[in-house]
Structures are given as structure tokens and as C-alpha cells.
Amino acid sequence: MIETLLPSNVAVQTCRASEGSGVKVMAEEESAIATAVKSRRREFSIGRTCARAALSKLGFPPCAIPSGPHREPLWPTGIVGSITHCGGFYAAAVALEKDYVALGIDAEVDEELPSGVLSLVSGDEERYWIANASGRLNWGRLLFSAKESIFKAWFPLTREWLGFEDAVITIVPDDGSFVAQLPHTLVPANDCPRELRGRFLIANGLILTAVFIAVPR
After folding, report:
1. Is residue 14 a contact partner of residue 50, using CB atoms and an 8 Å limit?
2. How many other CB atoms sit within 10 Å of the CB of residue 32?
3. Taken in order 158, 164, 170, 172, is the CA torsion positive or negative?
């Protein structure tokens, strides 16, 4: 499903936990999970397996995808990408750097945020919109997912940490999209936008979001 949120030249691979039995990490990836509990090792290994499968669709041979100092995936030269997992669902999306500046995806279980979390991840304007939104959808969880996708795209591009308060989201339910304003960021280059656009989908018990920044032509 998540591939419908992304352009056709972005390679996507998804799987369910039941499809990921017996997968292993590569030696260069081991340091990222050397002390991790079994469940975390499984999440990591299935996510990396999805990532390698997505890379193969772009013609890349199997390769290690180690983690950076902030647990971000370190992609092969010439690649941008993102990995997500939740509730037994895993996905990876990758694209060529010549086509995209950045890419971020996120998956969340389609249920309400735990009590008290919305106030931590949203601003007054966003909470007002959610309180008055039509439809019985988990708008708070969608907002959280959108911000996760934005961060995954933004951090590898700028090495700038985004707090939840740094992205102000406007959800457009009619066309399954959202717009993020980044008013307080320290933009290091002229080609880093202060506004990001993304898409969302709610289906099969999941909330899926995606953000991509195309290379200016």
C-alpha cells in the first residue's frame, strides 16, 4: 500500500513479520544491535532485509546498511531512503540521489495515541484542527506519523534535529495529503525548503505517511 504514496521511480519493499523468519544482519550492521533484545534484533533484521530488497529493484547488489550515530540508516553512495515498522508491518523505500534530495516514510497502527501524547507532539493550532475535524479517524496518530516521516527526510539532508514543535502540520483529508511548515529551522542551504508536502493512507489497520523532496530541475 505504501508504494501508492510515492512516485514510480521510488523502489519500495514491504513485508509482514510472518514473512521474515530466519533473516540475519550483515557483519557491518551488527554493532547497531549488539546489545539489543531479541525483539529489537528481529525488527532491525527484517527492516534491513526489506531495504536490501528495495535496493535490488534499483539494480544494487546485496549490501550492508549500517547505522549512523543517531540510529539513521547509512545508505550506499547515491541512494536516499527510509525504513519503518510497526505492529508486524515492515517497509523500506529507496531512490536515486540524482532524482530525490530526501525521502521519509512511516507506518503506525491505526489507533488513538496513548493518553497525554497528543499534547507532547502537537501545537495549539494542530490540536484545534483535530478537535474540530470531521470523521471518526485517528487524526492524532496521523499527525504523529506525518511528523515522523518529515523527520526521517529532514535529518539526513540537514543533520538538523527537528522537535515535534518544529513542524506545523496542515492535514488535507480530501486528497490524502499534508503540508508541513518548518518556521524555526536553521536551513543550511538554499535548496532545503521550509515547507514539505506529504501523502497519507489509512487502510488495513495501518496509518501510512510518506514525504519526498525531488531534485530541482
Report:
1. yes
2. 20
3. positive
The structure's pTM equals 0.90
What φ, ψ does residue 112 adopt, rounded to 5°? -65, 150
Q: What is the pLDDT of residues 77-91, one digit of tens each?
A: 999 999 999 988 999
169-207 residue pLDDT tens? 999 999 999 998 876 555 544 455 667 899 999 999 999
The C-alpha torsion from 186 through 188 and 194 to 195, rounded to 10°, is -130
- Long-range contacts of residues 64-67, Cβ cutoff 8 Å, at least 24 apart: 64/26, 64/27, 64/28, 64/29, 65/29, 66/28, 66/29, 66/31, 66/32, 67/29, 67/31, 67/32
Q: For residue 158, with 0-12 CB atoms within 10 Å meaning exposed, 13-18 middle and 19 or more buried, which class applies?
A: middle
